[in-house]
Amino acid sequence: MTTTTFDTLKFAAEEVAALKKENRFIKPRVLESAQAPVSVIDGKKVVNLTSNNYLALADNPKVKKAAIEAIEKYGIGSAAVRTIIGTMSIHKELEEKFAAFKHSEASILFQSGFTSNVAVCQSLMSSEADLLISDELNHASIIDGARLAKSPRKIYRHKDIKHLTEILESPEARKARRKMVVTDGVFSMDGDIANLDEVVAVSHKYGAFVMVDDAHASGVIGKEGRGTVSHFNLDGQVEIQIGTLSKAFAAVGGYAATTQDLRDYLGSVARPFLFSSSQPPSVAASCLAVLDILLTEPEYLKRLWDNTNFFKEEMKKAGFDTGSSVTPITPVMIGDMDKARALSAKLFDEGVFALPLGFPTVPKGRERLRTIVTAGHTLKDLEFAVEKFKKAGKELGII
Ligand SMILES: *Cc1c(COP(=O)(O)O)cnc(C)c1O
Questions:
Q1: Full set of structural domains in the chain with CATH
Q2: Active site residue: 139, 159, 231, 247, which one?
Q3: How confident is the model over 260-298, as pLDDT tens digits?
Q4: Which of 159, 273, 289, 317 is the most exposed place for a label (fewest CB within 10 A)?
Q5: How far apart are CA 93 and CA 90, in angstroms?
Q6: Cα(173)–Cα(276) distance, rounded to whole angstroms?
């Protein structure tokens, strides 16, 4: 091992020490198997309640086969950004099929959900005369997108339509060149769903357009997993649908589904599209395979929701506070990081993995374990997990 140290980087050790003191130092556990309902993590077989692999398709044979075939046909990577020569026919096919899935005119692919948010916020909020209006609990990538935008931004209280209306009625909003209201579809830490119908109605009333981030909603809610717009029957009424291909789609990538004009505009100006290479063809192929499964095999979505309902009920019955979730994300509220960590550690020893989350991922005082069940968990897996939660919860005085 090299042991080079640099006096000039001494601050890093101090920063790490400070993080440790604040309970913010992160040392991820390591997955040694596929991302599966029962996974091998840090050498131990555990019921995995922590991944976003909602439909349990991360190691699905059909999806893997599609990826392998695409490697055979197209090779492993595009070795270029989309606008140079990184646009492959399989990217075009995925964009077309995704637009159809979202009932929109067109879609554009990005490298991730994160870069999709950054791309759209930065490209559309390009002047100080614009105004970006965002729910306070929106994802970090929307916050960073807003930071890269030239426009000012206003934050409304979580799902508070009255507050959103006040902002839209403000002189600053009235004189704005463009106004974009941004909300997560499903909020990633609490598992509640945006009141998108009301957000759309009030936004349109005041001449704003809407962008919804469906990272935790695509493949999860709405007809055939089409997302929040479908969930609220708002087809044709939401200007921009963003999402990720890394959660229910189990691969990696992101998209914006929108009008053809806006798609064309983003394809010429969005910086992640212009300056970062395109999705590997095997990844696009696996996303196409997942789309096909969503449209033809409804049992995955059904199992996801059956499991969700069962787990939530059992956890509530056991006396845990599961917050405001109505989706497969079930937070187990603890309110203290040391306790959340202790619960997670006990559960891991007993064969269940549920990650503790604290500041800055969630606000201080709202520390929790976040669980996500998948379509792949068996009833036995979930019963086992609930039993272990009960045992550890009692030992720690949480229930
Ligand atoms: C996970 C997530 C993202 C980021 O998606 P990636 O594809 O992992 O970059 C963006 N928005 C929300 C709401 C998310 O939950």
A1: 26-59+298-395 (3.90.1150.10), 61-296 (3.40.640.10)
A2: 247
A3: 999 999 999 999 999 999 999 999 999 999 999 999 999
A4: 317
A5: 5
A6: 33
